[in-house]
Amino acid sequence: HADAALYYAKDAGRNNYQFYTTALSTKTPELLTLEKSLRFALEREEFMVYYQPRVNIITGQISGMEALLRWQHPEMGLVAPSVFIPLAEESGLIVPIGEWVLRTACKQNKAWQDAGFTPLTVAVNLSLKQFRQPNLVEILNNILKETGLEPKFLELEITESIAIEDLEFTRNVLDALQEMGVYLSIDDFGTGHSSLSRLQLLPLHHLKIDKSFIQELTRDDKVAHIIKAIVVLGQNLGLRLTAEGVEKAEELEFLKSINCEDVQGYLFYRPVAADKATEILIKEKNKHTDAQ
Ligand code: C2E
Ligand code: MG
Ligand code: MG
Ligand code: MG
């Protein structure tokens, strides 16, 4: 069924990609319908924020949560971000939608802290248009003030491609964000054809190795060397390293052997709704009380 690629499937990554490469040249009627309903999705409260824990390999503890946007379309079901984020970016709707994600994630993180869980950072993805907003710092300051979350518990992820598009501009924005005290990371590292030597001028805390590398790891020996080189170089630059898309025990073993600090992937947790994420945090807390 051709439309199946529109909907969120458990492992739809590759399908969605194929869907999108065709969709960019000619928009299917389904895509045009989605584009229209996207305009009302925010006010109709069709968005949800899911959370995926990031795990410290050494301690086995949750070291952060990434906020991942979901769209529950009334007729089409759950639509994947790889389908609707590009539409939202194109129309500019990503700006109000992204602001809603930021507010929701900060509020949730503060609620977890108030409930007595070990304080964690919540990571929010920023799109190009959001990153380019002249009043980004002001918006973020307002959200932090409104929700009562300390800036150090908010992490902002920008992709490597966004970061390198205009390095001078990126540096100015990141300097301002760094001054605010938020945590800064580069997402999907390795896909933007840049190099760490170009990124080293940026005030970064965290580098996330793109999942395509981890997926190739067991298929191609050379990839192991590349991942290792990224981890070593990144750590020498003082960055915290996370490997994305870890699904297999052997991938985890390899990442352990090269001292990669954190992993994020289905092997540990899938992205889940806030109530499920709370259950995960309760289990995590009990695990550590039991161990004492
Ligand atoms: P990302 O920021 O790189 O997020 C990681 C993606 O990898 C998520 O896909 C997550 O569900 C998926 N993932 C995590 N572990 C595994 C694994 O073990 N195997 C596989 N195959 N996938 C794994 P998701 O949620 O579909 O999001 C896709 C992309 O959409 C994100 O990639 C991010 O670029 C974008 N996105 C999601 N939420 C937002 C948002 O609120 N704002 C913006 N601007 N972009 C967002
Ligand atoms: Mg991300
Ligand atoms: Mg990524
Ligand atoms: Mg991505």
TrEMBL record:
Signal peptide: none annotated. Residues 31-285 form the EAL domain. It comes from the Bacteria. This is Diguanylate cyclase/phosphodiesterase with FHA and GAF sensor.
